[in-house]
Design brief:
The complex is a heterodimer of chains A (about 170) and B (about 260).
Chain A: H1 3-23, H2 30-36, E1 58-61, E2 67-74, E3 77-79, E4 82-86, E5 91-97, E6 102-105, E7 112-115, E8 121-125, E9 131-136, E10 149-155
Chain B: H1 16-41, H2 57-64, H3 68-74, H4 79-82, H5 101-112, H6 121-127, H7 130-142, H8 162-173, H9 185-188, H10 205-217, H11 227-234, H12 237-248
Helix pairs in contact in B: 3-7, 5-6, 5-7, 8-12, 10-11, 10-12
The chains are: A alpha+beta (about 170), B mainly alpha (about 260).
């Protein structure tokens, strides 16, 4: 075997071994994250790892005073079902879908965020006044689509609870 | 000339570019492994994982590839609580006849990994091999869930009075858009389907009520992405009772029988 053949063989093995590595969901390697882009997320394993595990959903308080809201859209619910944010601060919304395409709308405002399976949709929102908004799904997603609706509660900044670094807040019942 | 004493003969197979490529590959692999370990070590509060089941094509194939005949032989162990034909005589034990394969497979997996707790089912699920689970699941999925004229089995439930059934059938068919409660039948059949959601046909009323209350209180927390914990928490006490009676009466797939004479 000369070195050319050996090189071809090794490169083929390397290339073939990369295919299952990008295909399998369980492999959580930073290099793959970098290759696929930071907005890639696996819709089937949201509950197992990554930023959309159960105890990371809801509102997170950032150090600069803004908040980050993480949500999952799935047939036929938005999780958390009720979002609590303070008024007048920048809100970074990060949402992904576990199954179909959903479109999160905020009734009474112009905000609309599409939730796609496999990617994280980001949006920068701001609600200057306290109030309650309905957040229905505006993209037909299946049999229960018309009942898919969650709620947004904007409270004055002093009424918003002070959160610890690992703590998330929402007004859903659980 | 190269010094052949210092380098073994096979070293000459690798030109310097290939040597560099191999060194780069080794560095990358070692670096990623090390950084992954470091990232895991410095993680924030531990993730709360509801269930280790993940509906990949591999999982679906494993759950659907069982042998129903072998499952029938294995399922004789289940007779004592779940009934010889998959209809249990005890209210708090679920009927398994005609239950969807993926649903019962997921529950057995969760019992095995203690993501769903039950004094009786945890040791039983641990004693089953993956093949046993797939076989038992295939058997129960094949059992008929409906009364047909030639059927001699006794269905334990009676018909509900129309008041709660009205509340329940509205929730089952339409849900409640105002509160954001999706209709039950969009996932539990017959209109829609979702992997892991059991088709609620002829289920024991007491069992359904127990599970709704366990979901609402968070005592049972093995639903992936928490749909049932959310919905059960939004339902009122009356609605939970009404839904339990509705499914307990075997109305899951035939709402018309509520009004039709029998």
């Amino acid at each position: 075997m000369n070195w050319r053949k050996l090189r071809t063989f090794l490169l083929t093995v390397l290339a073939l071994s990369l295919i299952p590595a990008t295909r399998y969901y369980q492999i959580d390697v930073p290099l793959l994250h970098w290759l696929r882009g930071s907005r890639h997320v696996d819709p089937l394993s949201l509950h197992l790892m990554g930023e959309f595990v159960e105890n990371n959903l809801g509102t997170e308080q950032d150090s600069d005073g803004s908040v980050t809201v993480r949500m999952i859209a799935q047939q036929y619910l938005f999780i958390p079902h009720c979002i609590l944010i303070p008024a007048g601060v920048p809100v970074h919304l990060r949402i992904t879908s576990a199954d179909a395409v959903h479109w999160l709308a905020f009734d009474g405002t112009d905000y609309k965020v599409k939730a796609l399976p496999g990617t994280i949709s980001e949006a920068q929102l701001q609600f200057p006044h306290p109030g309650e908004y309905k957040m229905p799904c505006r993209e037909f997603c299946g049999a229960g689509h018309y009942a898919m609706r969650s709620e947004l509660k904007v409270v004055p900044r002093e009424q918003f609870p002070v959160l610890q670094p690992g703590e998330r807040s929402s007004c859903a019942g659980h | 000339m190269r010094d052949t004493k210092r380098f073994p003969r096979y070293w000459r197979l690798f030109p310097w570019r290939l040597r560099a490529a191999i060194a780069l590959a080794v560095t990358l692999v070692a670096g990623t492994a090390a950084s992954a370990l470091l990232l895991q070590a410095g993680a924030n509060p531990p993730d709360r994982i509801p269930s280790y089941v993940e509906w990949t094509p591999e999982t679906l194939a494993a759950a659907a590839g069982g042998d129903a005949f072998r499952g029938m032989l294995l399922a004789r162990r289940c007779d004592h609580c779940h009934g010889a034909e998959g209809f249990s005589a005890v209210g708090y034990t679920p009927n398994l006849a005609g239950i969807d394969r993926l649903a019962i497979w997921k529950e057995l997996e969760d019992f095995r990994s203690h993501k769903r707790l039950s004094r009786d089912m945890n040791p039983i699920a641990e004693s089953l091999s993956p093949r046993d689970v797939a076989d038992v699941v295939a058997y129960f999925a094949k059992l008929p869930a409906f009364a047909d004229p030639g059927d001699k089995r006794i269905f334990p439930q009676s018909r509900p009075d129309p008041g709660p059934a009205g509340i329940a059938s509205r929730l089952v068919s339409f849900g409640d858009g105002e509160r954001g409660i999706p209709p039950c039948q969009a996932c539990h059949g017959p209109v829609g389907y979702r992997p892991g959601a059991p088709l609620l046909v002829n289920q024991n009323a007491e069992y359904v009520l127990n599970q709704l209350e366990a979901f609402a209180s968070g005592e049972r927390a093995n639903d992936i992405n928490m749909p049932m914990r959310t919905i059960a928490g939004l339902l009122t006490e009356d609605e939970r009772h009404a839904l339990a009676e509705y499914y307990g009466a075997g109305l899951g797939l035939e709402p018309a029988s509520l009004t039709a004479p029998k």
